[in-house]
Amino acid sequence: MSAALQHPLLDRRLILVTGKGGTGKTTVVASLALAAAQRGKRVIVIETGLDEHIPRLLAPNSGTAGYAGKTLLPGIDSMRIDPYEALAEYLSMKTGMRAPLHFVIRNPSFRQFMDATPGWRELITLGKIWQLEQSVDTKKRPLYDLLLVDAPATGHGLIFLEVPQVVASAVRTGTLHRNAEFVGTLLQDAQRTVLLPVALAEELPARETIELVARVRQKVGAPLACIVVNSVMPAPFPTGLENLDQLLGRLPQARQITGLPPLSAITRCAQHLRARFELNRRYVEMIHNETQLPVLTLPQIPHGIVSLSDLRVLAAALSRNRPVLPA
Question: pTM higher than 0.70 for the full model?
Answer without folding.
Answer: yes
